[in-house]
Structures are given as C-alpha cells and as structure tokens.
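Fold sample X.
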Amino acid sequence: MLSADLVALPMCFAFALFLRAGNLELLVQYGITPPLIIAACTIPVFSMSGLYRTVVRYFDLRVLWTTGTSLACLVGLTYALSFLVHLDRLPRTGLLIYWFIAFAYVVISRFVARALLTRTQQKQKVQNEPAALRVGIFGAGEAGFQLAIAMRASRSHKAVCFFDDDLTLSRSIFADLPVYHSGQMRNRIAEHAINEVVLAVPSLSSERRRQLVDRLHRYSVSVRTVPSLLELVDRKITVQSIRNVEVEDLLGRDVVPPREDLFAKCTQRKIVMVTGAGGSIGKELCRQVATQGPQRLILFDHSEYALYAIEQELRQRYPDLQITARIGSVCDASAMSAALRGQEVDTIYHAAAYKHVPLVEGNMSEGIRNNVLGSCTVANLADHFGVQTCVLISTDKAVRPTNVMGASKRVAELVFQAAAARASTRTVFSMVRFGNVLGSSGSVVPLFRRQIREGGPITITHPDVIRFFMLIPEAAQLVIQAGAMAKGGEVFVLDMGKPIRIIDLARTMIEMSGLVEKTRKNPAGEIEIKVVGLRPGEKLFEELLIGGEVTPSGHERILCSNEPFLEDADLHNKLDCLISACNTRDELEIQLALQSLVPEYAPYSSLDSPRRQTAAARPEGAQPVQLPLRASAPGRLRSAEVATDLKHATLSRSGEDELRKA
C-alpha cells in the first residue's frame, strides 16, 4: 500500500495541475519537485490517520473519513503556509483539485484491492465449503435491512428476497433485493429455490409467529428468527444473531412486559432474600433482582451445587453487587434465623418448594414438610425480623387440588393469608400463582426435546390435557411486581391468555425439529405420540383462581383476588394434626389432615395400590378397609364423600382403632 501510494500520489498532483490548466503548461513550468514534496507530506498524514494499519479485506469507512479529513487539513495548512512565506515554487491553484483526486484514489484503490482479495479468498475456499443457504427474509424493516447487509459478507447465507405483510412495499426494492407480499411466499420460495426463511421482525407477536412457522413448515423450508426486542436491547442484527425458532416463541400470546416503577419498588437499594435461589424460578428471580441494583442479595438454598452455580453467575455478571450465599433448608428455623439475623432484610421471595407432582405424591410426608413447614418458618421469621414484603410463589395446582403437591401449596397459601391477617404484623404478605413455566425443571418442553432426540415416542398423559404457559422471565417479573402491589393477603395471577393443548405443543415441536409425526394414516413418520394415561393427581386442566371474583391491580395484565382463609388459631390446630400425620407417615391420615385444611382437595382413589393398602401394618387375618367409592369423576373422591364413606365403611376390628384415631 505504501509503495503504491509513493508512485500514485505524485501522479495525482500532476493530474491536478493538468486539470487546472487544461494542458501541460503548469507541469512544464513547475517541474517534478512540487508533486514529490506534496507526496512526501501526504504519506506521513496517511500513516497517522491509521490508513496503513488497516487490513484491506476488512476496511472500515471510518478510516476513510479520518484519512480524507487529515488530507483536507494538510491541503489547507499548505495553502496557508504558501501565502505566509510567499512560496512561488508551489502551485497553489492545484491544491484543492489535488485533495479531490488523491482522496478518490485512496477510496477506489482500497475497495478494488479488497474486492480482489475477497474474491481470491472465496475461490480458494469454495471447493471445500457447501453452497450458501438461499435465505428469504420476512420483514422489510430495520432488522431485515441490517440482516441483509450482514449476509453480503457471509459465505454461509445468501439473502435473495424479502417478504412482508405490508402491501405498499410489494415489488419495491429494499437493500438491493425485491420485496414480495407474504401472500406470495409459496410461489416465490419455489421460484428463488429458498432453503430458509428468517423472521426478522423483533416485535412480531407470538400468534403471528406461530402462524408463519406453521405455514412455512408446510412449504418444506426451515424457519429461524432474530432475537426479540427484549433479547436485542441495543445490539445490532448480524448473521450470528439468527437462532432457531424456540417453543417459547410460539407461546400463543404476547409476552407481558413489566412496569418499571413496580419492578424497582421492593428491590432497588433494598436488601433482598430469595429462598430456593438455586431452582429454575429462584435463579431467574435472582437475575431480575440483580438488574435493579439492590443493596444486598441473600441467596438461600439447601443444594450446595445449585447455590454455587447461581452465586458464580451473579458475581461474574454483577461484580459490584453484594451477594451472600447461605446453605440451609427452609424447614430448619435455626438456619433461616441465622441467615436473617442482623441483615435487616426488606424483601423475601419464597421460591423454595418441592413441585414435581408424582414425586410428592409418592413422598407425601417429605413434600408436605418442605412446602408447608417451610412456608410456616419463612412467614414466622419474616414477621419476627420485621421484613417489609414477603411473597410466596404458589401454583395453579393449588386450586381445587387433586394431588398432595397442589394441596400442600394451598396450605402454604393459608399460612401466608393467616400471617397477613395478624393485627400485630409489620410485614406485607402476598402470594403469586403460576401456570406452567416453559423451560423450568420438570416442564414438558425439555422432556419432549429429549424424547425427540432419542427418536420418540413422545409421551403425553391425555389428548385433551390443556395448560397455561408462561416464560421463566415472566414468572420472575410477576413475583417482583406482585410484591410491589400487595397490601396484604392477596393472591396475584397473570392474565395467561388462551391455554395450549399439550398434544398440539408436542406436534409443533416435532414439526420444528424437521420431522413428521408417525400415525396410523402415516406409518412412515419418524416420531410417534403415545398416550400413557393421567398420572396420579393430574387434572385435564388447571385453574388459577378459587373464587370467580377478581379485582384490577396496578398492572393491566395482572389480576388480584382475595380468597377465603382460616383464622390463625384454627389453622395452627389443623397444622399440628397434619405434621403429626407426617411424622407417622400414614398416607391415609395425611390425606384426611389435608382435607380438613383444604376441603376442596379431592385426591385420586388409588387405595387399591400396594403403597396405599398398608397391608404390612395390619394383623394377620385382618381385612382391608372397603370404601364404597362414589367419585364424581373417574378415579377421584370429593372431600365430603370421603368423610361419609369412611364413616360407613366396613372395618375389621383391628382397623377400627386406627381409623378412630385418624
């Protein structure tokens, strides 16, 4: 580059003199000395502007701007100096023309060199690389424009056209590519041999995204997307920004954005504790709280590794944040008390719980201890230490529960409701109920992904099962905002939109994997969907509210409800019976104690299973309890019917005393 400039710059000045006079008269008059002097002055200026340090293949326009400005300064100073010292040997009339010619030479020479180098490099690699993907970009907007420009430098992707819903853009040219209306996608995909369509509209609604994905899969092209507005923040769109369309993108409703004033009220410059900080929801709560600049964040979890992982993540992302990590169980009052003592905690988010329905159903006493006794500990200590806000994370399975996990979470809600009703309390207690959280541990999405990866089948419990779904960040934001809006004892739920059929979710994931469902009509498909039957305690659909009455909250998409609860004294008496039943590990006694607390609890009637019959505990020759079941739904008992059936049950003499105690 330097050698070429040493030859070309004197020629540029000579050409400037020729243009000035229209003939060779000035060249003959001044000779070769002025072009050499100007070139000798220009080379150091180019060097200081960074022109010779720039790799030609990745030439930056900012370098050209700096070079042109520096050259203009040189010409101006030379012109002024020639006037001051009356330098007649320097042809001042050609200086301005020289600036234009020299700058044009620099720009043209560098871009020609870059084009030649790039073409040579591409020819060397083209034999070893697969052909570039032919890409159609959906969205003729800013994100689509950035993506198309980025693809010009990519060897793996080639943008061939745009698609857009706006009819006014049809057949226009955008970033040198034609724009077609989305209604023409099928024909244009075939015409341009498009392999992939990228959804380049960060603000695209979930419903529209779902429609496009379903439609494009029928055209046998892969579908990918650019990040959403929340993911992008201020980052530019590049080829590396393209990612696969995830199930989370097809939620079926728009993500509910948080209100900043609510988000900061209980977290900004506050001392915040998160129990269950190592769990799916707990970790996201910690991340969301950390963004608000708390005074200190206290992480509490019984799992050493989970606590270590979230602590290291937060310390790396927020090096200035004060973080305290405490190992312990929420059932251990002394451990919780030690974590709170002297900390002056302002806010507690209680996320510690056992939540897997079949596991809790098979380990009743441990599940109830963790979910109920843990909530009692947190509520009592929050009151004792004067915590300002305490939020319980509950579940939609607590509404008219059919399983022990849901019933235990409803009892935890009763504990928080009773704590909020105490006249002497200084703490604002509230509860938040979720639907299913996509991507959390135990959710169907990771399970379906694993089953698809293993070649199937995908197992679902019932073809008519429907569920509400939300994203992990949404869940955490709901918890934080609920604490800010609470006045004491309320239950907050998110407006979840329409529920999603689990079987539809499974079919969507099969399509997104580029596979075909295996059915009787299509035995050549790759992945089968297999119905395995409802698990113990599972319902076809979940509800979010016990009562039908809801009131508006401070957020237009968050609903608030005040639900019936037990007085403190009555609650504690029944809790004592429940904990005593857990100590005996008698599952029938546990269920009866739960029903005294949660009358709407209707457990599955699996009394004929080996685990429920307690045959080992009966004396030899004794007959099992025979319950004349009158369930309103297959396999379920209403609480009133349970009491009646137990009262009229035919018992062996050896079993009467046990039942009377229960």
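Fold sample Y, listed below.
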Amino acid sequence: MIQISQLKLPVGHSDEELVQKVVKKLKITRDQIQKLTIRRASIDARKKPELYWVYTIWLELKNEKKFKDLKISPKEYVLPSPGTKELMHRPVIIGTGPAGLFCGLFLARAGYRPILLERGLEVAKRVEKVNTFWETGKLDTNCNVQFGEGGAGTFSDGKLNTLVKDNSGRNHKVLETFVEAGAPTDILYLNKPHIGTDVLREVVQNLHKEIEEAGGEIYFSSQVTDLMIEDDQLKGLEINHKEQIETEVAVLAIGHSARDTFEMLHKRQIPMEAKSFAVGFRIEHPQEMINESQYGAKKVKGLLAADYKLTAKTSTGRGVYSFCMCPGGQVVNSSSEEGHMVVNGMSYRKRDGKNANAALIVTVTPEDYPSNEVLSGVEFQRRIEKAAYEAGNGKIPIQLYGDFKKGQPSTMIGQVHPEVKGQYQLTSLNSILPEELNESLIEGIESFGKKIKGFNREDALLLGVESRTSSPIRILRDDKMQTKVRGIYPCGEGPGYAGGIMSAAMDGIKAAEKIISTFKTTIAK
C-alpha cells in the first residue's frame, strides 16, 4: 500500500476527477489501481471563495515497487490476549455513554458477557422524555439530556474529532465501529467528522443490539447507589438502594453530570481531586454570516454549514474560547436537576438550521472556588445553574449581546431569532457568572469580531448557562486504570479522562483492554 498526501481538487469535483488526479500524479494507467481509499480530507479556504479539498489517499497498485518512498504499513487495531486471573463474576459497566458502550462492546466481543447499568432509559423512550421536557418543562431527573442510553452526546452535534494522540489504532477503530453500526462512511476520513444527533441515536441502538447478541446485558433505570468493599477490593454494587450485584470488576463510565454518584464515591473514600473546567454562555449567529466569513459565500454547493474555532487571551490572562460549535444547529435545554438551568448545542446530520451556535467559555480552576473541598467545583456549577434558572423563570434565559455589554435586560429580539429546543425568556444574564468572567467574555467576543465579521454584532444572542463542558473532578487511577480500591476502573468524561465522544470511547476501549489482559474469558458465576 502507498500513501499520497496534499492532493488538492476544487470543491464540487467528481470521483473520476480524483482518480485522474492520482493517475497523473503517479504517472500510471488507471487499470493499475486496485483499490483507492480516501484516508483524510479537509477544506482549504485560504483563497476563498475558491475552495479546495485536500486529500490524503491510500492506494493498492498492481506494481508498487517503484513507489518505495510512498510505501506504508498501516497498523491494525488488535485486542490483547486474555489474561490468566480467574474472574468470579461477570464484569459490570456503570453508564452507557460512549465510554461505557465501547467498553461493553469490546468486552462482549471478547467473550466476557458484561452487564451494563444505566440510570436512564433506552434511546427511544429517552427521546420521548426529552421532547416532553422541552415542550412542557416537566423534568425527569434520571432520564434527560444528560442521563440515558448514549450519554449526553446523544443530544449533541455528534462530533467525532479529538485532540488525543493515538498510536494504538483505537481512534480509527472507534470510527470503523460507528460505520459498522450505521454511521456514514465519510466520518472515516473527514478531518472534522460528525454524525448528527439524529443518526447517532440509530447508531447507539445498533451498538446496544450487538452487545446483547454477543452475550452482554443492559439494564435501564438502574442507578448504582453504593459500593460493597472489603479490604480495598470491590465485592459488589448496590442498585437503586435495594438490589445488589456481586462483582469484583466495575467500570466507572459515569458522565460528568453524575453528581450524586460523585458524592457517594467521595463518601466511600474513593480518591479524587478537583480539576479545572470551563463555564460561559451559548452564542447564536445567522449561519449564513458564518458561511460568508469561512467560505466567502452564504451557501456553497457540496459543503455543509461552516464551523469555526476561536480562542483569545484576555488582559487579565484568562483564556476565552469557543467550544462544541454546532453549525446549523439549535441550543437545547440540558438541565438534569430541578431548579437549575443548563444549555448545550445540538445539530442534525444535515446541519440545515438557520443559526450557528457555540459555547463561549472561560476556564475556571480550583482557585476560583470558595473552598478547597474536592466537590467545590460541583457546588460552583450548581450556583450558576440556579442563577440561570432564576434569571429565566425556569426557561432558557436569553439576552442580546449589546444589552449584555450595557448590563441591561433584553426586551426584544433583533434580526437573529432564537433556534432553541425548550422554552425561553428574554431577560438579563449579567448576574449569572462572576463579574470577572463576564468581562472576560465581552473582551473575547470583541476580539472574535476581528476574526469573523459580525461576531460581535449587537443582536447576537447569548443563552445561559453552559456549565457542563467537562467534569469538575478527577477520580484517581493508576497505570492499570484502577483506583486504590481494586476492581474499580474509572474511565471517560465523568471521572475526568476524556472530553468528547471520541476520547471517551477510546478510554472505554482502553479499560476493556486492561480487563481482558488481566482476566480469563471463563467466568465462574
């Protein structure tokens, strides 16, 4: 196999034009190509409105001897061989977000028949619950945008890019697994792949089906409420304060919103520490304005809505940056606790909504919290979420950026109309975050206005509050991925080891590898 990089073609080219470009570059005939695979594709917009695709191509040729300098030997992902330690009970996975699902899937494929526990409901019933919440405001605190099959990412843009450096092949294996479960094949090569919340729901259901077909079981409405520990060894789990499951292996794939579980683990003296995270607001702009800035045109045939990634450093030294940008998407009410308001962004596969939205966030560290308690970050989140709930009278609070700068409530919408899931109310967001963070956000938005024309327009909409960007705690683990209580394997976003669908899924696979390489596939009970 050989690899060609930096192959450039204009947006809108045909498949045949790509093949002919390869033929010309290598000076070969078309019939010498046995297989052509696009391995990487990104947009070059430096000469907009002239836009180009830039490809990395993998080729299998009839005669590759004269292309020695282009020869590659791709590394295929391989699960480790089973270990030798006896496993008395089936392994249990707590949570069915990306980390839990992928850990469960790979354990099931290897013959370990895992049990997966989820406090929320399966996807179809979960969607019904969430739609009811958005329409009526009636919240189910165990099944919502944060909790349920697929995790918080099920109601998101379904982004599959990651900054994790991966030499193991896990990254591509996750993408291949998504495709096998029904995701579009372009996620295998786009530099910013996304599935979309609508397609992701189908993928999650197919992963669920494969786990069960391979011998695993998934139990819903099953929250882990306590641990059974003897001599620093896990012995079992308490479910819903009444049932018990015996196990010496439990993967802690809880999400970043499992605050009651954090409290239980802290009470059980599972070592953890406070960590930095980020908070802020969602901002909405017309998608055509973003397209014009990024592509040089309001619409480009053959391209989905444009995205952006922005960073700035304020005069006080704080970083302000965009996060989880959703082209053609909606801002959604993502609350999981009564009397508290949280927002997030969501896009469908087509990304064809009128607005672009993104979180604009500022990093906060344990030094910003009022105490040095491990869970003080959780309390900080709760305070600003309560303030956001009160600001909007239980609805998503919205304020025009121009009014936010002036410190006055908004009473009418400008040219940017809200694209939201859930009820909303015009109000003031100024009292939600500490004043220093408000000032940082304003300074950042003004800076971003120099990079994207109109970003700091007066009628851009701010919606609050974005507080669940990542976990406020880290559950400490060793090189075997276990806590000091043996048999507990923290992984994914909630325990503080991932930041998105891809990195969480990869961490889930990593936990499965540790279990597989330690234990036999035969299970005593």
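Sample Y note: Residues 2-70 form a domain with the Alpha-Beta Plaits fold (CATH 3.30.70.2700).
Also: The mean pLDDT is 96.
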